Amino acid sequence: MNSKERVSIALKRQGLPDRVPMQFDLSRSLLKKFAEKYGVPAYFTTSYYEDVTYRISGNDLRVAMGSDCVVVGASLPRGYTHPVDDSGCIINEFGMRMREGPIYIEVVEHPLAGVKGAEQVNDFVFPDPLAEGRYDDAARFIEKYRQSHFIVGDMELTMFDMMAQLVGLEKLLLDMAMGEPYVEALIDKTMNFALAVGKRLVSMGVDGIWAGDDFGSQNGLLISPPMWRRYFKERYRHVYAQLKMVNPNVMIMQHSDGAVASILDEWIEVGLEVFNPVQPNVPGHSPEELKDKFGDKVSFWGAIDQQSLLPFGTPLEIEADVKAKITVLGRGGGYMAAPAHIIQAGTPMENVEAFINAVRKNGT
Predict the structure, then answer these.
(1) DSSP class of 292
(2) Torsion over CA of 47, 105, 55 and 363, rounded to 10 degrees?
(3) Residue 33 CA from chain centroid, whole number
(4) What is the model's pTM?
């Protein structure tokens, strides 16, 4: 079977594919290194937020390396580039001032850091999610790979993550706890932007649509389950339903870093179908526990440790971990192997290839 069939059968839990499918994201430096090694250009699709850039870049290269998925999303409008201020900081379309570091770009000035009322949110101008040319690259890669590979449409920074970058995380968390009136207005504004992106991608023919909000830390949730229910649960039900209205067959894929098992059942209730990234080594995320509790309701995508194992482990240790995750999470289908985040710049190239080879070797 081809990659598209492999991923579809696995994630829809329609039996066992010929092998467990795989997907991976690479940092900018690794994309450039592997492009040189494979002789395949590391084509970059610059998005309105840096993390999304790495998700939707290098598709030809990642396919050549063995990925069963192609990831597309919203780029900058045609002919537009991010301005750079006198200090060298990038100003993105939302007005976030961002400083480029050795690995990532970080927000150093939040455009809504002083927000107090809903009227300030209403007056704040978001970029046009449907701007001319924003989906040129997405259209090109969908047309190229739609028959052979599973196409994922990326609409990350769906609500909470975008709010945190606009306001600042500490202020946002305090204001949510205090019930400040602007919070609801900002959630809806970010949700509607993400939905416009998601609907466009679904209408273009992606097989899965990937929402993303990081509600977890290494030890537990960043907000309480009651607060998640208050602000986000029903809005996620609305988002998923709207996407399904465009195409009932599109798979709903949800990213959330950290330990979020305590709300996973309710997230599934409102329509989540594929859980990513299944961050390992956090409370409640043991493969056995997740598979036993949720394996008949949701599929898993991720679970390979990119914090310690991939950068510092040996190829044999990587193979052992991949085999163990496939054995448990892949039982009866319902698993796509992937690192739990973008593979970081300091990871040895041979360890990236050890992951890919381990899935091929042990995925059956």
Answers:
(1) H
(2) 180
(3) 23
(4) 0.97
Give the separation between CA 30 and CA 226, rounded to whole angstroms: 40
> Can you say whether the dihedral through the CA atoms of 266, 13, 341, 271 is positive or negative?
negative
Mean local confidence (pLDDT), 310-319: 98
The model's confidence at residue 100, banded by pLDDT at 50, 70 and 90, is confident
Helices (H) and strands (E) in the chain, counts: 16, 10
Beta bridge partners of 339: 304
**3-state DSSP assignment of residue 342:** coil
CATH topology classification for 3-26+41-284: TIM Barrel (3.20.20)
Question: Is the alpha carbon torsion for 220, 182, 128, 101 positive or negative?
Answer: negative
Q: Please name the residues in contact with 314: beta carbons below 8 A apart, sequence gap of 6 or more.
A: none
* Domain range list for the chain: 3-26+41-284
Q: What are the Cα distances from residue 31, in Å, to 57, 65, 109, 313?
A: 9, 11, 28, 20
| pLDDT tens track for 263-307 | 999 999 999 999 999 999 999 999 999 999 999 999 999 999 999
| Edge-to-edge strand ranges of the sheet holding 105-109 | 90-91, 97-100, 105-109
Could you give the C-alpha distances from 10 to 14, 16, 72, 214, 271, in angstroms and in order? Answer: 7, 6, 20, 25, 18
DSSP per residue over 41-91, as a string? -------SSHHHHHHHS-HHHHHHHT-SEEEEE--PPTT----B-TTS-EE
| pLDDT for 104 beyond 90 | no
